[in-house]
Amino acid sequence: MSCSHREEQREGRLFDVLTDEETGLRLVVSRLGAELISLARRDENGEWIGFLHRDGDLTPPEKGWGNHATVMGFFLHHLKDQRSLYRGEPIEGGTHSFLRGKDWRAPQVETEEGRLTYTIEPADYTATEYPLAVALELSYAIEEEDVRVTFTFENQEPERAAHLGFGLHPGFAAANFESFGLDMPAGRYRRHFSPTNYLSGQTQDFDFSGGEMPFDREKLPGSFILELVNVPDRTFTFYDPPTSRSVTLELDGVPYLTLWSDGGAFLCVEPCWGLTDHDQQRPFEDKEGIQILAAGMQFEASFTMSPRLGAGAAS
Fold it and tell me: What 3-state class would DSSP assign to 218?
C-alpha cells in the first residue's frame, strides 16, 4: 500500500492530507491540536463522503459543538474549576487539557506505511499545563479499510512515575439527532455518573446482551461514561441509515468509553484512558482511571475506526 501526502493551508492554518486511492480513504489532520478534521471515503460516483461532524468545515457553527475529533490529554474531560494539584504542585487547563490548543510541528510522513506521526515534547508545554517531562507521539495510519489512532507516551523523568489521562473525541455525522444508532457488544459495563460534568461517585454496573445502546438519547447531552469491565469483544458500530454511513470501532485495550451529543446531528463515541474529576476533587495523581507510566518507560495505546458506505452501513 502507498498513500499520497500533501500540505494544505486554509484560513491561516496548516493541514496534512493523507490519501489512499486504492481503498478510497482520505484523512485531513489540522496541525492545530493534531485534530482529525475529515475522515472520508470515495463513493461509487467518485465523490468524497465525510464521516465526521462538520467534516472538513472550519467555519464556526451558529450553535452547538464546533469540533470534529478533539485530541484529549494529558488529562481529559474536566479539571474542576480548571485547576488541580499534582503532587502538591498546581496544574491548570481547560476542557480536555492542552493538546487540543497546541500548534504541533510538521509530522513525520510515511507514505508507504500510510502514516502521519505528530510529536509533542516537554518543551512544547508549560509546568502549569503539566509539570513532568513526558513526550507524546500521536499517529494516524490507514491500514487497508481501517484507520488506526495510536498514542505513544515516553516518560523522560529519570525517577518519577507520570500520571496521564488521554483519548480521542470523534463526533460521527448523522442526518439528524434521531436517525443514528450505536450497536454495543455484550458484556458487563459500569456507568460512572457525572451530573455536573464531574463524577458524583455513583456508579451502576449492568450486564448487556448486545445490540442497540440501552440509553435514552435525550440524555446524551449529559453524557454516558462507561467503564468496559468485562467486554470480551470490544466492537462498537455507529450507523446512520438515511445517509448509508457507518463507522465500526475496535476498542481492544480501551478501558473507558464516553457517549455524548449536544442534540445535534452527531454522536461522539470517545475512547478514553481516564475519567473526569470527581465533584469532590482528588489530587491529580489520585484521579479515578488515571494511567501510570513508570520512570523512563514508554506506553502505547491504540484503536481503529472503519468507515463504510452503502447498504452495509445500516443496522
Answer: helix
